[in-house]
Design a protein that fits this description.
This protein has 377 residues and is α/β, with parallel strands linked by helices. The chain has 13 helices and 16 strands. Helices cover 38% and strands 16% of the residues. It has a seven-stranded mixed beta sheet, with helices on both faces. The model has no long low-confidence stretch (mean pLDDT 96). The structure holds ligand T4K. The site of ligand T4K has 23 residues, from helix 3 and helix 4. Ligand T4K binds next to helix 3 and helix 4.
């Protein structure tokens, strides 16, 4: 086995632990652990400043953030989403009896193909959720134009795109709102966590009520709500990691560059680049295993896993093929040729602060040796 300890896709980026301990020490001194504590309020303010948005509501995770945003925006009936996403995007709709209508993606951006979106609009459609998948930014302007033309609401699942810019503007302020996940596996994490970023005052107010059982004040409930609050300890981690973003980004960039150089020399493997973004967190190393490579995608995954290099097939087989959706839309795949092709070919490689270019060179050396010595399997 090449590596003694497993190399994980999604191994957490952890910032300055002393800073984190300091925050939690103060938290214990205050004896205030959750429910809009000082750290959450500070975290929200710093996020707003960082993202350049009027409101950023910190929540317990990205899935609940999606659910609350969808409800706050009043989406219903059918909503157009890509199938090439983590299942949480679809679940956040279906959980509320809204039908996710799976739409194909563009082969270059890997995000919703605007011309395909138009094909899926019906009288029941109320919205579009674009996903900046693997940190590739959606064609925001084209999607907004479609939404405006058809009077639909556009929002984004930005779980993969924290710290990105699109045409010089930070991801977070596009559409009616953008939703982040701060899960441990993300570029920027708060253990578990998420947020809704928006410039819409009304929506922000509603979301603040909804995340706290609908309370608008003592003994006064304005909305149906749930418990979506972020805890103080999660905000402490968020604040800690916010101070280390440049360091995380620099490490990811070094790793990404090492991968890019290595894959250039391996026939049949192609790093799917996302250079179109102005600034990217480079947290997703997505590789297409082409037919000319010596091994199939799945055989390569098995080989790598045997060496403790735990590459993933995210988001195989696509939401439309997962049990809850396959039953409802059994023929959805016919309309998703690009999605199906991409999901059958890609592997995500590990990166983040747990890795360095030297480790990546060892990973690539192995892959290269198989490329030259293996018969197709
Ligand atoms: N929208 C999109 C586009 C998303 O990608 C996600 C989440 C969401 C919405 C929803 O946001 P959250 O509600 O999660 O905030 C993981 C994550 O749980 C999930 O947050 C993430 N996307 C998804 C892409 O990946 P699994 O089921 O693949 O997790 P698991 O346990 O297999 O871990 C993933 C990898 O990370 C493994 O290789 C192990 C490694 N890992 C994980 C943890 C938790 C570590 O090395 N250390 C850790 O502490 O879903």
């Amino acid at each position: 086995m090449e590596f003694k300890h497993p190399l994980h896709v999604g191994a957490p980026n952890v910032g300055n632990k002393d800073q984190f301990y300091k925050y939690t020490e103060e938290m214990f001194d205050r004896n205030w652990l959750t429910n809009h504590g000082e750290l959450v309020l500070q975290f929200e303010e710093e996020l707003q400043n960082y993202l350049g948005v009027k409101h950023c509501i910190a929540l317990c995770n990205g899935t609940v953030a999606l659910e609350i945003a969808i409800r706050g925006l009043g989406l219903s009936g059918e909503v157009i989403v890509p199938s090439l996403t983590f299942v949480a995007t679809a679940h956040a709709l279906q959980w509320q009896e809204i039908t996710p209508i799976f739409c194909d993606v563009d082969p270059v951006t890997l995000c919703l193909d605007p011309s395909e979106v138009e094909r899926h609009i019906t009288p029941r459609t109320t919205g579009i959720i674009g996903v900046h998948v693997y940190g590739h930014c959606c064609e925001v302007d084209a999607l907004q134009k479609i939404a405006d033309t058809h009077q639909l609401t556009l929002m984004f699942d930005a779980a993969h795109a924290f710290g990105h810019t699109h045409h010089g503007r930070k991801i977070g302020s596009f559409g009616a709102c953008e939703v982040f996940s701060f899960h441990a596996t993300k570029f920027f994490n708060s253990f578990e966590g998420g947020a809704v970023a928006t410039n819409n005052d009304e929506l922000a107010k509603k979301i603040r009520y909804m995340q706290n059982f609908g309370f608008s004040g003592d003994d006064c409930v304005e909305h149906v709500g749930l418990n979506g609050k972020m805890t103080e300890v999660c905000a402490a981690m968020g604040l800690t990691n916010l101070r280390c973003l440049d360091q995380f980004r620099a490490i990811n960039l070094e790793n990404y560059t090492a991968y890019a150089r290595g894959f250039e020399g391996i026939q049949g493997l192609r790093l799917i680049r996302n250079e179109a973004n102005d600034i990217s967190n480079k947290h997703y190393v997505v590789v297409e295993v082409m037919d000319e490579f010596a091994l199939s995608r799945d055989a390569l995954q098995v080989r790598l896993q045997a060496e403790n290099i735990l590459v993933r097939r995210y988001f195989w087989p696509g939401c439309h093929r997962l049990a809850p959706y396959n039953k409802r839309q059994p023929n959805a795949g016919v309309l998703l040729p690009v999605t199906e092709k991409i999901l059958a070919k890609i592997l995500l490689f590990p990166t983040g602060t747990a890795l360095n270019p030297e480790m990546i060179r060892r990973v690539l050396a192995l892959v290269e040796s198989w490329a030259s010595s293996t018969k197709k399997s």
